[in-house]
Amino acid sequence: MKKQLNGLIFGAVMLAGSVQAAPILLSPEWAAEACQGWNNNEVLTKRLVVTEWVNNHKGRGFKVMQIYRSDCPASPRVEMRVSLVDGKAKCVYGGLVQTAKLETDADYVMWAETTRWKEMGAGEYGPMRAMMFGRLNFQGPKGEAMSNMGPFEQFLLLAGKGDAAQCPAAAPAAPAK
Asked: What is the CA radius of gyration of the chain?
């Protein structure tokens, strides 16, 4: 009996150790996972082609969304890039910000407090309500955003898949030369 119990405890410990925790909300790791989630979402990958959202990239071949938590001021912003790939609006990059100059009539910057990201990620309300009540702030082409509220709501649900218990760690300082 003792041997069986030890075996069960060992199995439970091994199983618990193999379960990965959700990445910190709006961290570079979260952005990489959100990129995969984007690519697995048919509304995002297909509808944003139909509405031609993905084609508004100012000749760069990708749209940029930079995202952050406003109550985590020392945390780095993250970036997701979306391109037309094989007829679908695919996320081709998710991680730390790499695009220094945004195109204001094509790209987006979005920010909200952590509690608001979690509420939107849980589907408590969509992007229209979030923006109307100042829960989600953004810069970018407003008309384009307004005509893509359905897909945008799917994007906000990705925020529900992050650990909001702590702020993302500040980016390491570049080494002195």
From this structure: 19
The burial class, CB within 10 Å (0-12 / 13-18 / 19+), for 87 is exposed
pLDDT at residue 113 tops 90: yes
Cβ-contact 157, 121 below 8 angstroms: yes
CA torsion sign for 135, 153, 111, 52 is negative
Alpha carbons 155 and 172: distance in angstroms, whole number: 28
Element (H, E) at 128: helix 127-132
Cβ neighbours of residue 174 closer than 8 Å, sequence gap 6 or more = none
Paired tokens of 130: 């979030």
3-class SS shares of the chain: helix, strand, coil, % to 5: 40, 20, 40
State the average pLDDT over residues 14-32: 77
Amino acid at the residue 90: K
Quick one: CA dihedral 87, 94, 67, 165, positive or negative? positive
In this prediction the pTM is 0.83
What's the mean pLDDT in 95-122?
95
